[in-house]
Specification:
Layout (H helix, E strand, L loop, with lengths): L1 E6 L4 E6 L4 H9 L7 E5 L5 H12 L3 E5 L2 E5 L7 E2 L1 H4 L9 H8 L1 E5 L12 H9 L3 E5 L2 E5 L7 E3 L5 H12 L4 E5 L5 H12 L3 E3 L5 E5 L7 E4 L4 H14 L1 E6 L7 H9 L3 E5 L2 E6 L8 E2 L11 H9 L4 E5 L9 H7 L4 E4 L2 E5 L8 E3 L3 H13 L3 E5 L2 H6 L3 H6 L4 E6 L1
Length: 417
């Protein structure tokens, strides 16, 4: 099992190229099930989750040819309408094959998903929406069995804002008979990116980027070419790394408009941020200032940036409060940060961070994807050596993070157990 060995204390300087967004690439790959034509994708990140999704789609009969950041999909030979437990258990985004399979083929059998252990993320909203569109759904032996001759357009109001739920129902609605209105839809940029691809494929969607999506179903979708948007969470992670370790780094192949709130919080912390159409420069010359925030759905502060920003707060001047409203089990990194000398106390869904002047290297263990990124950031700022274990979590969502950080001066290397 790989680990990351980090020797902290180096300021970061140089340029990092940001990869395509994992959370956009996964539903976009599933959109290849909606048509028999070619889908040509670019800016697809090299990630474990992406590889898992491609393998899942290939075992269904979807052709998926990869060359660097390019992926060519062709769904003309899809013949297995099942997502087995063995493939789904490691990645809950596998549930995103449910809507496309049901819409195009009238049938799907999908294992209930797994993924990060950051709290309960039920798929009941996916099922509720598809049932409203006329699907017959049963859950047997851990599998969702769904059937529908053709889905019918209807109005769907989800009980909560759900990103994958919105994406699944959006893809299903593109081939439904009539008009589907998705109320309380997720507004995340990754949902917008999927919708933009679907429009290129011939879907009729109004309200893209809002919480009300109106979809007029069509008989068939056709091929298209699409570049996956930049990963806003990877962008934010590297911004936090510079804010914690200090330095001057330019991030290329990214967009500042994808993470306005997080950038505002970094400015409050003392970072100097400038940006252009496809780049962001971050400069940090002093100890960060403590900044409080509350996670919420987009366009609020993203839950996927909470742990990384907490690493910055752990060495900040002052006391901060971080309230997590999305997932009930997303403070698992706190215990590990405290091993590095942080002073963090949990009260319910709020973490109270009393910033210390210096963290000190120690062995730590990653518990989920974003927690692992936060421990890397803390390690970069700490004095001495930090060994981060279980970095398979990190590899699910970051494309060769240690190489990108080493290129800007970090002392970080991947080691084998």
């Amino acid at each position: 099992m790989d680990k990351l060995l980090i020797t902290g204390g180096n300021r970061l300087s140089g340029e990092i190229t940001v990869s395509g967004a994992k959370n956009a690439a996964l539903p976009i790959l599933c959109a290849g099930l909606l048509t028999a034509d070619d889908i040509k994708l670019s800016n697809v990140p090299h990630l474990q989750d992406v590889s898992t999704m491609i393998k899942l789609l290939q075992q269904m009969g979807l052709r998926a040819d990869r060359d660097a950041e390019q992926v060519l999909l062709n769904g003309s030979a899809v013949d297995k309408l099942e997502a087995p437990y063995e493939m789904v258990k490691t990645m809950r985004a596998s549930i995103l094959v449910l809507g496309p399979l049901l819409a195009r083929f009238g049938e799907a059998k999908v294992s209930l998903p797994g993924g990060c252990a950051i709290g309960s993320r039920p798929v009941d909203q996916h099922i509720k929406g598809l049932q409203a569109m006329g699907a017959e759904i049963a859950i047997e032996a851990g599998y969702i069995h769904a059937k529908a001759k053709r889905l019918k357009g209807t109005r769907v109001v989800t009980d909560m804002i759900t990103v994958t739920g919105t994406e699944n129902l959006l893809m299903a609605a593109t081939l439904a008979d009539g008009r589907t209105v998705l109320e309380n839809a997720a507004r995340e940029p990754e949902v917008t990116d999927l919708a933009n691809l679907l429009v290129k494929m011939g879907a009729r969607i109004e309200g893209i980027g809002t919480d009300r999506l109106v979809v007029d179903g069509v008989e068939r979708l056709h091929g298209a070419s699409h570049a996956v948007i930049a990963d806003r969470i990877e962008t934010g992670t590297f911004l936090c790394a510079v804010a914690a370790a200090g330095g001057d780094v330019t991030l290329s192949n990214t967009r500042s408009d994808l993470l306005d709130v997080a950038m505002d919080k970094l400015r409050e912390a003392g970072a100097v941020l400038t940006s252009g159409p496809d780049w962001i420069r971050v400069q940090m010359a002093s100890r960060p200032k403590a900044v409080s925030f509350r996670t919420t759905e987009y366009p609020g502060f993203p839950t996927d940036m909470q742990a990384q920003f907490m690493a910055v707060n752990s060495i900040a001047d002052g006391v901060s409060r971080v309230t997590e409203t999305i997932f009930e089990n997303r403070f698992m990194h706190v215990q590990e940060m405290n091993r590095l000398g942080a002073a963090i106390v949990i009260e319910g869904n709020t973490a109270i961070i009393d910033g210390v002047e210096q963290l000190f290297g120690a062995p730590v263990m990653a518990t989920d994807l974003r927690a692992s990124a936060s421990l890397v950031i803390a390690g970069l700022a700490a004095k001495g050596e930090t060994m981060v274990d279980r970095i398979y979590h990190l590899d699910r969502g970051y494309d060769r993070m240690e190489l990108k950080l080493r290129a800007v001066g970090a002392r970080i290397e991947r080691v084998k157990s």
